[in-house]
Amino acid sequence: MKKGYTLVSKGYKAVKDIAQGNFSLHEVFLDGMMLVSPEVKKYHRVADIINDQGKILAEYKAAFRRFKASGNFSDSDIAYLSSVYGQLFELSKDNLDELLMVITALTLRMSDQERLAAIDRIFADTEDKLQFLRAFNDQAGMLDLQRRRERDDIKGLSDVFGH
């Protein structure tokens, strides 16, 4: 009976050690997923996202100043432009926050492949926002030009007719 107990006890201990070792392997694996490899941090899309975010900020601020100063937009037009730019800025800021989470250790449990995929997705979204901004600014610029021409035409006619 003692031999049986010893055998069962050793077997149980071996199974327990294996199970704990297996858990330790999983723990090491999962903890490793919390770390960010240097390759992910150096991924060129990270710099591209940051550069695009800078372009979004600079381009929307310059356009907004130009449209406000033109005198060709009403107060409600300016409020609309401000609202669009404000929403775009908030969404762009969300992209930066998400990027920071992806490239910062101990915030998300992801493999390098998942991190790279997330960075690519953020990059694509940032590019979409930049393209939207440029198209929006082009349309607002055309409206600005059209209104300036109309104002000049009215002024010209007024000068001709002496009013």
By DSSP, the count of extended strands is 0
What number is the mean pLDDT? 81
Helix content: over 70%
What sort of overall outline do the alpha carbons produce when their principal axes are compared?
rod-shaped
- Structural class category: mainly alpha
Q: What fraction of the residues are assigned to beta strands by DSSP?
A: under 5%
| Oligomeric grouping of the chains | single chain
Distance between the termini: 120 Å
Q: Count the helices. How many?
A: 5
* Major sheet description: none
**Over all CA atoms, what is the radius of gyration?**
30 Å
Give me the strand/helix succession: HHHHH
Low-confidence stretches: 21-33
Explain how this protein is built:
Helix content is 88%, strand content 0%. The chain has five helices and no strands. α3 runs antiparallel to α4. About 8% of the residues have low confidence.
Could you outline the blueprint of secondary structure elements for this entry?
Elements: H1 2-34, H2 38-41, H3 44-70, H4 75-103, H5 112-161
Short overview:
With 163 residues, this protein is mainly α. Helix content is 88%, strand content 0%. Helix 3 (44-70) runs antiparallel to helix 4 and helix 3 (44-70) runs parallel beside helix 5.
Which key terms come to mind for this protein?
163 residues, 0% strand
